Inverse folding.
């Protein structure tokens, strides 16, 4: 019970909203890092997924990359980002964490994009071809909009993973909310540890819910009407 | 990382085989306990869901929320209560297996064809016999698929428990980070991935042995 009181006190202490270690600064750092990794991951994974899904080639690779991604421990990714960042002379903190997070974001997005594009009904594809769509037009104006909800569902998985793993960035001197957990552990300050953990958990849940909403909005209006009609 | 230091010092690995073996045992132990306990809890909850379907939504919500909470945060939330112990590690690791295992067990048992069930009832099977001799064997392939995913994720998550004084191969990664010693770090990461692949292969063999009628891996 005293811990609970300590944690509440921690959240109401104005000192925790000032300077480099302020809560709002850490939240922004966490979101910047996660956002950058997610955007970079999506920029790599979506085009590859679209191309593989459209042509139907390398199916085995596209489907299994998500499983391979799951096997790679996040702590190891953070650790392996370190030598890469050192080799490029980018130092500690932001960059090694980013190098670790991008490969984490790619697998779920790539696999979902591939599966989604493959899952577009052949009738729609044939109809579009019959209407004289070019291959690129077909991909951009038929396959992509129809595949979007599933692509975003993969992006949601990636986003939650990235936000979770960004916490570990504090181990390689990164910022973000992981700072409170790692420092709280090191200093045995359980109020800081607990407050940090609550903030991280909350952020992950908020991200999950926000992407869930986005997914529903992204369903093509034509399909929304169609499913409403049934 | 340290100038002039090679990325991997093979002599360090050769002289530390005892420690690597020790970390392997730790890693396997943490994983086996987590997946076994997870399987028991998930099984009980699944049977409950199958009997009382209105429990499905709340159980999925709770296990889904647990699954969303980042591992380090979940461990950190437990530390004030259970300390830097294996109990903290296992509570976290077990929590993460539940969503996947329950989904696969429930889905596996539900997808037993209705006519098979009816035939069993017609032959006089009691609900308990039906579960044991009909539903479970037929659901086994899907259940083991869930166990494979849970095992792979757990092996990855075990590395994070190094931060709370456990960790198996994760300990090597953590020490490697702290000492800027790439050999130890890469060895820990590589061995953890290798263990995940080996465990997955082993489970595929188990599945083939237990369900010889299922050709799909």
């Amino acid at each position: 019970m005293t811990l609970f009181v300590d944690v509440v006190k921690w959240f109401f202490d104005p000192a925790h909203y000032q300077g480099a270690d302020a809560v709002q600064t850490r939240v922004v750092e966490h979101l910047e890092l996660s956002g950058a990794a997610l955007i970079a991951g999506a920029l790599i994974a979506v085009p590859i997924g679209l191309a593989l899904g459209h042509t139907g080639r390398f199916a085995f690779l596209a489907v299994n990359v998500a499983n391979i991604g799951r096997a790679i421990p996040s702590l190891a990714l953070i650790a392996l980002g370190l030598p890469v960042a050192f080799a490029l002379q980018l130092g500690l903190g932001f960059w090694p964490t980013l190098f670790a997070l991008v490969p984490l974001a790619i697998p779920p997005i790539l696999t979902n994009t591939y599966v989604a594009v493959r899952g577009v009904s052949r009738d729609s594809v044939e109809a579009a071809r019959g209407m004289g769509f070019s291959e690129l037009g077909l991909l951009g104006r038929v396959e992509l909009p129809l595949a979007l909800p599933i692509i975003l569902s993969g992006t949601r998985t990636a986003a939650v993973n990235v936000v979770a793993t960004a916490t570990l960035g504090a181990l390689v001197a990164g910022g973000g909310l992981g700072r409170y957990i790692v420092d709280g552990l090191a200093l045995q300050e359980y109020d800081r540890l607990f407050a940090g953990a609550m903030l991280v958990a909350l952020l992950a849940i908020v991200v999950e819910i926000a992407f869930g909403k986005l997914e529903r909005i992204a369903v093509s209006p034509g399909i929304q009407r169609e499913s409403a009609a049934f | 990382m340290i100038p002039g230091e090679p990325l991997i010092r093979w002599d360090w690995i050769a002289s530390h085989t005892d420690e690597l073996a020790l970390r392997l045992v730790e890693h396997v132990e943490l994983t086996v306990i987590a997946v076994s306990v997870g399987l028991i809890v998930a099984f009980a909850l699944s049977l409950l869901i199958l009997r009382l379907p209105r429990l499905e939504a709340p159980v999925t919500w709770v296990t889904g929320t647990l699954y969303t909470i980042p591992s380090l945060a979940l461990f950190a939330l437990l530390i004030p209560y259970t300390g830097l112990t294996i109990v903290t590690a296992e509570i976290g690791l077990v929590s993460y297996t539940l969503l996947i295992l329950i989904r696969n067990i429930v889905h596996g048992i539900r997808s037993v064809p209705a006519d098979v069930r009816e035939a069993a009832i017609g032959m006089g099977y009691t609900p308990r016999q039906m579960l044991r001799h009909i539903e479970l064997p037929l659901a086994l392939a899907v259940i083991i698929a869930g166990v494979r995913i849970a095992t792979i994720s757990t092996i990855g998550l075990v590395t994070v428990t190094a931060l709370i004084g456990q960790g198996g191969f994760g300990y090597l990664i953590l020490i490697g980070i702290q000492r800027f010693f790439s050999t130890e770090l890469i060895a820990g990461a590589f061995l953890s991935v290798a263990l995940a692949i080996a465990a997955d292969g082993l489970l595929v063999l188990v599945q083939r042995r237990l369900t010889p009628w299922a050709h799909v891996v």
Summary: Chain A has ten helices and no strands. The interface with chain B takes residues 3, 67, 70-76, 78-80, 82-83, 86, 160, 163-165, 167-168, 171-172, 178, 181-182, 184-185, 190, 193-194, 196-198, 200-201, 204-205, 208 of chain A (CB under 8 Å).
